[in-house]
Design a protein that fits this description.
3 helices; 122 residues
Length: 122
């Protein structure tokens, strides 16, 4: 499966190493709560944890900043991010194929759920 095929099926490309929003593929920022790092898509109010203690910048922050970050994060829904669509981000073509197959499966599932919600509202 090529990058072009994946992007066409998803409807967007994901360029960030730490993944993108399952609705648009973007990531607006990374916010810290103590040593935990969270990626955020503000437009769709989605968040995903990318790890802990990966970046040292959290050590330069204080509780005031973490409280502000928490206010943003608590308005977001925790989601599984879409992995990068660029094959060069992966160790092998098998890794890329597995990651993209999972991303496409979840994307199709989200679309089915969205259509179900629309049908229920009608």
């Amino acid at each position: 499966m090529t990058e072009e095929e994946v992007v066409a099926r998803l409807g967007f490309a994901v360029g960030d190493y730490f993944g993108g929003c399952p609705e648009c593929g973007k990531q607006d920022s990374i916010l810290n709560i103590w040593s935990s790092h969270w990626a955020v898509c503000r437009e769709h109010k989605n968040k995903w944890c990318i790890g802990a203690n990966l970046f040292s910048c959290w050590r330069e922050e204080d509780e005031f900043i973490w409280r502000q970050n928490w206010e943003t994060l608590r308005e977001c829904v925790e989601v599984k991010s879409v992995p990068p669509t660029d094959p060069t981000c992966y160790a092998s073509s098998d890794c890329y194929e597995r990651a993209m197959a999972d991303a496409l499966r979840l994307s199709a599932e989200r679309r089915r759920l969205a259509l179900s919600v629309v049908a229920l509202r009608a």
